[in-house]
Amino acid sequence: MKNLIQAFLAVLVVSIVCLIAINRLNASAGYSGTNTLTVYNWGDYIDEEVIDQFEEETGITVIYETFDSNEAMMTKIQQGGTTYDVAVPSEYMVQKMMEEDLLIELDHSKLPNLKNIDERFMDLAFDPGNKFSVPYFWGTVGIVFNTKMLPDMNFKSWDDLWDPELKNDILLVDGAREVIGMGLNSLGYSLNDTNKVHLQEAQDKLNTLTPNIKAIVGDENKLLMANGEAPVALVWSGDASEIMFENEDLDYSVPEEGSNLWFDNMVIPKTAKNIDGAHQFINFMLDAEVAAQNTEYVSYSTPNKEALKYMPEEMVNDERFYPSPELTDKLEVYDNLGKKNLAYYNELFLEFKMYRK
Amino acid sequence: MSRKSSPFANLFLVIIFFVLYAPIFYLIFYSFNSGGTMSGFEGFTLDWYKELFSDTRLLIIVLNTVVIALLSALISTIIGVFGAIGIREMKRKRNQNSILGLNNVLIVSPDVIIGASFLILFTMAGIQLGFYSVLLSHIAFSIPIVVLMVLPKLMEMSPSLIDAARDLGASRWNVLTKVILPYITPGIFAGFFMALTYSLDDFAVTFFVTGNGFSTLSVEIYSLARQGISLNINALSALIFLVTVVLVIVYYYISRRAGNQGMGGMRR
């Protein structure tokens, strides 16, 4: 009995010491103040120095929380019980959140820096007039390949993937829209095509790709490519820039037939408590110099035209991540296809996955 | 019984342990890498540890995780022990079995479902997500584990011990504190440490109930996946591994002491 009481008291003491330490740390970081702003973003998707700078300028303390998928983020916001002031969903999720009435309309008069955003990235189909969202980063879907393992290929066209030399070499990302989209693009159709004949054609073409496919994987394709386990993979440009930094033999290409253009966007959820602060934060992130610094850290492509002036030239001139206007014109943002069409995409993708070589 | 195990069996054991520990040591090895990635070792550095200790947000998250684990293990142990005693005291075998069944259902049911239902419950009840919601849910999923760890010890205890104590004039309180609890002490510690580890590594339930600036390590590391995990997480893992080793040693020390006293606990 004495043992038990001693042990339990020890546990209590340790917990109390920890709690005091947490309080101290919170106070030293200013988290316990009243003027706070909760930002809900992807993990490691912002330069912490930028946050410090914002705190210094405005006196608002930022509480930074992270999520790992759009769906997870939406669930948290939908259920309430949280006070996220700014969140960063991808474009299709912005649309979903708008439909579910989870977002607050942005007050453009409080966002003077909105003028810095490249017009190409404004007023897009998923949020006409940017009523609810402001682009944060953008990117493409393309092919990352190992120049050492494939010295004489450059993947300027989707059709290069069908090269018989690539037998059992390709990693695909496990996403219906990405893979079916690749099939559609390679045939010259739109990514948002819902014509069943076209979709069937795309699937037939994809089926002929099966001998070349090594695996259909999720996030682990980054690790596999970085370690040289496979020579080619279909990836998002953000992932590509990250693994190219780790493994210098890798290169990235967006095929000239066109591809997907994706966005991560800043929004203000209905759960927000500090709406004014949220606007201030978004406006701050749109500032050219801040966006430049943040982009250098995150290394995704920034939609901020003015920021490009403050960034290193080799970054801005990298056509792999800031493609030429001709190519950008061919890039398409995913439309919301509606439940029925999306289910059809998923079905086609499933059939493709089950197709035997 | 004293037959020596064959060298082959020993070799097998060594290989298994190597496979089990290799990833951890690989991770720890790279926490000293001066290169920024895990793809090649460039040179020795302690920078990642320095970075770790200067990252206030991460430190708060680590401390949060520890506090939640300790407190939830403590509270669930107390509740679980009384629960187990209650189950044992039940007169009818059928009731006992059905309660035990309900207890087991909670252990085998998927974490995701438990997490989602807690999220719905807390938001319906108007409880803000944060420290208390995480603590409550961890206590809830730890209790069945504690019950399961304590119950065998209780069942093993001869009922005549209690009868004898009562015959000698012990009150209910005396029976509890001088007979039952000392006897089941090893089980209680086992339950406590099980609850502790369950709480430390739980992601699925915790993910649903964190919010408002409160987060734990598992949730935080998971959300780093999109950008790739920085080496200061390796450094953190190395430290946590060390702490776990210390905890295991403490556990063995305590359980040996408790085990030695075993019946001798009666003296106190």
Provide a descriptive summary of the structure in words.
The complex is a heterodimer of chains A (357) and B (268). Chain A is α/β, with parallel strands linked by helices. Chain A folds into three domains: 1-30; 34-132 and 265-316, 3-Layer(aba) Sandwich (D-Maltodextrin-Binding Protein, domain 2); 139-260 and 331-356, Periplasmic binding protein-like II (D-Maltodextrin-Binding Protein, domain 2, 3-Layer(aba) Sandwich). Chain A contains 13 helices and nine strands. Chain A has helices at 2-29, 48-58, 70-79, 91-99, 176-186, 196-207, 221-226, 237-246, 275-286, 288-298, 313-316, 325-330, 338-354; strands at residues 36-42, 61-67, 86-87, 133-146, 170-173, 213-217, 232-236, 250-253, 261-267. In chain A, the strands form two sheets. In chain A, strands 4, 5, 6, 7, 8 and 9 form a six-stranded mixed β-sheet that branches. Chain A has a three-stranded parallel β-sheet with strand order 2-1-3. In chain A, helix 2 links the parallel strand 1 and strand 2 (61-67). The mean pLDDT of chain A is 86. By secondary structure, chain B is mainly α. In chain B, helix 1 (7-30) crosses helix 11 (231-261). Chain B has a domain at 60-228: MetI-like fold (Orthogonal Bundle), CATH 1.10.3720.10. Helices cover 77% and strands 0% of the residues of chain B. The interface between A and B is large, with 47 and 53 residues. Chain B: It is a multi-pass membrane protein. Chain B: Residues 62-251 form the ABC transmembrane type-1 domain. Chain B: InterPro entries: Bact_Polyamine_Transport, MetI-like, MetI-like_sf. Chain B: Its main location: membrane. Chain B: Keywords: Cell membrane, Membrane, Transmembrane, Transmembrane helix, Transport.
